[in-house]
Structures are given as structure tokens and as C-alpha cells.
Predict the 3D structure of the following.
Amino acid sequence: MQGIKLDISGTEKFVSKEKLHEMEDRIFSAHDKIQDKTGEGKEMLGWFDLPSHRKEEEIERIKSCAKKIQKQSDVLVVIGIGGSYLGAKAVIDLFADSFANMKSYRQRKYPEIIFAGNSLSGKYLRNLIEYLEDKDFSINVISKSGTTLEPAIAFRTLRLVLEQKYGVRGVAERIYVTTDENKGILHDIAVKNEYERFVVPDDIGGRYSVLTAVGLLPMAVANIQIEDVLDGAQFASYLYNERSLETNECYQYAAMRNILYEQGKRIEILASYEPSFQYFIEWFKQLFGESEGKNNKGIFPAGVNFTTDLHSMGQMIQEGKRNIFETVLNVETDRSFISLPSLDVDEDGLNYLAGKDIDYINKQAFLGTLKAHIDGGVPTMVLNIKDVNEYYVGQLIYFFEKACAISAYCLGVNPFNQPGVEAYKKNMMNLLKGE
Ligand code: PA5
């Protein structure tokens, strides 16, 4: 069943039906590049049919390692940066209790999951080591290249902490490595020390890797039904492969982004009214930012959490420079079942809302903001999500992956490389090596 519906009525004031229709040829050409593997970066299309080409044996191994981690550890430290952590963090946060990491293992029913190696902060690493001192922990280190400095530094440091705690043999039971199948320093370390290994396929880049072991192992440790996520993505891979702009909403979204960009809307803001979507927005920002920002082109992907950010960024969106458009993630089903209590004495003047669900109030904020932003000159698309379950989240992930590839091809850039990331690394290495 389809759980994601795109509503583009909030762009009608800005983009005519004819204009959208004119995009058809470019969308079809992008579709063909992916379908026939003829576009730039064609060797990185492994994500395209990954959900239907999953390896059952690997899924079983992921699930059994997840069980082992759950048994042996209070904490799982996931070491990785960029595409090697954002997808897992995004999905885990969507399903987790808002206070998951403050609860006990018994309440949460799975180990605490902490992410590391995604910055070079000494403070963070020092605090993490102190926090882990009296806890049993395991490590899932994830790096496709196996050479990225941030995770490498965290891994070297935390592996030593593990060694001091459990000895060299004990460590081998607690380190899970996700990296290239055949090469790289991390691969070599894993082979030499006989650590459990998972593979990031050659034809899948970091930001497209959430549905590989990169995302699936941490998700499984958090008790997320990974097969349902893959089933949802598989459903979406068929639905969003239809060569039609009339019916394929993924293609409508990609087309609309390009039209708006060409009309001077250089920034896309992805908004959500659920704080648990914060890292999903971060994942989106990385996916589109690294895929589209090249050759002096690209829509700048930004994100906001409403209603929180209506009190910080709301003014800018409403009345700032008209170079933005918005995409709103709207979750339709409320599972919080909390309404505003009624008071005998209406001290705070809120009795007019008494008995109303908080989610109902949130939805009115969404509808009111939607109208205000459209009236204020911000074209807005809404992605309605029926419910936050594994099947629909799988669909949502695939929707954005496919839309990103199609959109980048329409923009005229290779969606799958990231040559610009090297510039800072080169300078940093020169400084570190004193060259
Ligand atoms: O999407 C990408 O390719 C990047 O964001 C990488 O995921 C990130 O740079 C980390 O690279 P690696 O997994 O090789 O450590």
C-alpha cells in the first residue's frame, strides 16, 4: 500500500500546469539514464534495485549480529560520518522514544545507540570515553573508503578503550566493521583481526547506502524491522519507476524543484512538524547537497523543525528574500493520544482548546503556516506520510533517493560523485603533515 502522497497544489500560484508538462522530456531523459545505466555516474546505481536484490543470507547475518550486540552490550557506538551514519541515525530517531537514550535498557528494550566519529571534537570523544567507562559496549565502525579521518580517529581511540576492557580476544567479539569488500585500511584491519565484516557495495555511494548494512545493522539493533523497511523501499522502487510525469509523484517533485530553481528559488527548505524528523532532514540535506551542489549549480538544501523554528526562521521564510521554496513532511496519523486538559478556572485562557488533541493543534499550525507561506510568496509542496511505520519509511527513503538522482540529472550534474569534498581534506592533511 502506498503511504506517501505528494501534494503540489501549493505551487499552483507560481508554476502553471503547462510549465510542469514542459519538463516531461528532461524527466524522461533522466529516467532513461537511470533505467538504461547511461548517465554520468552510471557505475553507482546499485541503490536503484537494491531493495529487490537484497541478499537474504546477509539480512539474516545482520539480524543475528544485532541480537548478539543486544545481548552483550549496554551501548552500541556507531562510528561513521556523512552517508556512513546519517541514514541510520535518521531512521532510528523516527522510531525511538523521544527520551530513548535517557531510559534504561529494560525500558528501551535495546542498547543505547551513540554515534561517534562524525566530528573532530576532542570534547565529545573525551566525554564519550568517560561515559563508556562503566558500561559494556560494542562498536560498529562504518567507512566505505576505510580512510576517512574522523571515523578513523574515533575507531583507533575507542578500540583501545575496548582492548583495555576486554583484552584483544574479547574485542574481536565486539567490533563490527562495515566497509569495502576487498580493499582499504579498515578492510585490512578487519581481516587481520577477524572482526565480523559487512560490505558497502562498490556501486553504492555513502549517501545512498542507508538500505545496505550501513544503515540496517544499527537499525536492527534498535529493534527496527529491517525487512519491512526494505519491503517498503521495494514497493516504492516499482511505483516511482513509472515513466510518467502525470502519475509519478517522485518525478513531479524532481521536476518542480528544477522549475522553481530556474525561477530563482535557490533554496529548498525541508520542514517537519515532528522533532523526531530532525535527522531525517539532515539525511536529506546530505543526499541532495552532495548530489546536486557542483559545477556552480545546485539547490541549497536547508531544513527546519516546526513549530520550534517558526520562532527563529519563520520571519525569514515569511518575509525574507523570495529565493526559497518549501517541502513539508506531514505525518497524518497521531499515536500520541494526548489532549489539552480542561480547567475549572480558565486561568491561562486555554479552555477554548480543552479536549483537543495536541496533534490537532499541531496540524492547525501546519495548515495556518502553509497558507501564510504560500501567500507570502513561498511555493510549497507537501509530502503526506500516512504513518511512521517501517514500510512507509522505506518508501520515504526511496522516494527521496530516486527524486535526488532524477533531479540532479535534470540539473545537468552527476548525482553520484562528490569531488568538492576533497578540497578541505587536502588542506587539512597538508597542515597535519606539516607540508
Ligand atoms: O555520501 C558520501 O559518499 C559521503 O558523505 C561519505 O559517506 C562520507 O564522506 C564518509 O565516507 P566513508 O564512508 O568512506 O568514510
